[in-house]
Design brief:
With 295 residues, the protein is of the alpha/beta class. Helices cover 29% and strands 27% of the residues. It has 2 domains: 212 residues, Rossmann fold (3-Layer(aba) Sandwich); 56 residues, no CATH class.
Length: 295
């Protein structure tokens, strides 16, 4: 079977600032039409890596390939970027702001498509200074799409948004990916990565410490589930086939076979209405890999 050429490939990329090795020899490949996540805490090197890949900064060494070829000046015509923070021309409406950026490109995307894809209809003629956080991020996403890019970079796009606005933004990203576009996302929100990303790398101190598909990584590092049973519901002398420990008023059972353990609980007379089955997530993975949390 012939493997398709990745839309983007990074080989042994390095970037230092003085003695600080912000990006220290990372390599990865991005499948076309996927959402690729670059994860890690603040200071991990995510933003530096993505800015070098976007050709905003020159690498100290390493290779960046776009569709199998070394990136050239034309690369910028094929990408869209939503930065963590963007300064805009004031006293313009959202529509006027989009039109301003559209004029920078020879073949901009039709304005009505951008408005629809980013759900801008309700505030398209509002002053861009009078938007909520979520509305502003949707407008910035529209700006990133004005040149109809094949490859879209989103650098921590939902930082500071409330949960409802974050979910709305996620749905927009899914719609854009459904059009066949490739998305590269940096984030330190693990629920965001689990919802959006097909593949991820986890960075810490400039290095990639793990990579793969989220579900496969969770199965690799956490083959077991955790079943939490209220201590008061566990009959005296009850024994189980999987490891158990008491914590915070619960008995926590770490088990490879959830169904079998639940059958054991029923046989022991445990009322399952108070039982919790917990799935490991990417927060747990990062804590295991680095010994520290993500925030």
């Amino acid at each position: 079977m012939i493997k398709a050429t990745p839309i983007l490939e990074v080989r042994d990329l390095r970037k230092s600032y003085g003695k600080v090795k912000a990006v220290d020899g990372i390599s990865f490949a991005v499948r076309e039409g996927s959402c690729f996540g670059i994860l890690g805490p603040n200071g991990a090197g995510k933003t530096t890596a993505i800015e070098v890949i976007e050709t905003i900064h020159d690498p100290d060494s390493g290779t960046i390939l776009y569709r199998g070829e070394a990136v050239a000046r034309s690369f910028k015509e094929n990408i869209g970027i939503q930065f963590q923070d963007t300064s805009l021309q004031e006293f313009l409406t959202v529509r006027e702001t989009l039109e301003l950026f559209s004029k920078l490109y020879p073949r901009p995307r039709p304005m009505d498509e951008i408005i629809a894809d980013c759900s801008l209809e309700e505030f398209i003629d509002r002053d861009n200074r009078k938007l909520s956080g979520g509305q502003r991020q949707r407008m910035l996403l529209g700006i990133a799409l004005v040149n109809n890019p094949d490859l879209l970079f989103l650098d921590e796009p939902t930082t500071g948004l409330d949960p409802h606005a974050r979910r709305n933004f996620w749905r927009l990203v899914q719609g854009i990916k459904a059009q066949g576009k490739t998305v590269i996302l940096t984030t330190h929100y693990m629920d965001e990565a689990e919802y959006l990303c097909d593949d991820i790398i986890v960075m810490d101190h400039g290095h990639i410490i793990e990579s793969g598909r989220p579900r496969e990584l969770l199965l690799k590092h956490f083959g077991e589930a955790v079943i939490r049973v209220p201590e008061a519901a566990v009959p005296a002398g009850a024994a189980f086939s999987c490891p158990a420990e008491s914590e915070e008023g619960f008995v926590s059972l770490t088990c490879a076979d959830t169904d079998a353990t639940l059958r054991e609980l029923v046989a022991a007379g445990v009322d399952l209405r108070g039982v919790l089955v917990e799935r490991r997530n990417l927060d747990d993975l990062f804590l295991k890999l680095t010994g520290s949390g993500l925030d």
